Amino acid sequence: MSRTRTDASASAVAADTPAPAVRVRGVTKTFGRGAAAVPALRGVDMDVQPGELVMLVGPSGCGKTTLLSIISGVLDADGGAAELYGVEWASLTTDQKTRRRRDLVGFVFQQFNLVPTLTVAQNVAVPLMLSGVSFAPAVRRATEVLGTVGLGARASAMPAELSGGMQQRVAIARALVGKPRLLVCDEPTANLDARTGQSVMELIHAASREKAESGHERCVVVVTHDARIFRYADRVEEMEDGMVKDHPSNLVMEEARMMPHYGEPHSERLADQVGH
Does residue 269 contact residue 235 with C-beta atoms inside 8 Å? Predict the structure, then answer.
């Protein structure tokens, strides 16, 4: 009888635990062949929960961007399984992957990747037009989203007329215009000064607390070397030699605690992780 109660209790706990938004198990990836083969990922396991902002940290070449690309369906894994909201990327055709990325994933890149011949609003509207929204409604929606990042008055400007921080805010607006359920950011503050980086991370942190178009919680995964922004995370995962460590090293957590920052940690969960 006691075993039955235990099994029932375990089942109830499992039922109450939300399924991870991102689930990665045993993922491997190697670039090149033969003597030139370079293993980038060596059996990575990681979950990201809905509503969570996770930062991937570690030295250059440790596999952070490769893992981000597999999580978002841009790159195929060689082995293991990578799922986004319960669907394994490897089970989809190329066209299905494209549609799923379009509908569920927003991307923020280090280099902004704005089209120089389009206005700010037109750049932000591109994902909507790719989804079938006609030009005028797409630009109207884009202008509304630009307002949320403080750039509504610059909707008609060209990218070259904006500062680097403004261009990154445009890139964030473009990533969010379709209300994705997963936001992936690759070094979003790398080319920005401290104050501008703070404002960009405020936007990304706020995005992790918003609902997606479907009404579900959004999750955010950020690749970064910038210890100043660790405090915006709910959890920091450290990578080394193509693997995610069981626990971030004391050095990483001490860096998160000691680096200059603005105000108190945004996440109580990260405060617990760094020992506050």
Answer: yes
CB-based contacts of 179, cutoff 8 Å, min separation 6: 211, 212, 213
DSSP state of 74: S
Of 262, 197, 195, 193, the closest CA to residue 231 belongs to 262
62: its two tokens: 């440790």
pLDDT, tens only, 163-220: 999 999 999 999 999 999 999 999 999 888 888 888 999 999 999 988 766 678 899 9
User: Nearest to residue 236, comparing CAs of 256, 260, 261, 209?
Assistant: 256
Classify each residue of 146-184 as buried b or exposed e, where b means 16 or more C-beta atoms within 10 Å of its C-beta: bebbebeebbeebbeebeebbbbbbbbbbbbbbbbbbbb
Q: Quote the CA–CA distance of 181 and 104 in Å, as a whole number.
A: 5
On the 0-12 / 13-18 / 19+ scale of CB atoms within 10 A, 216 is middle
Tokens 């996440």, residue located: 267
Angle 164-176/120-130 helices, nearest 10 degrees?
20
pTM value is: 0.85
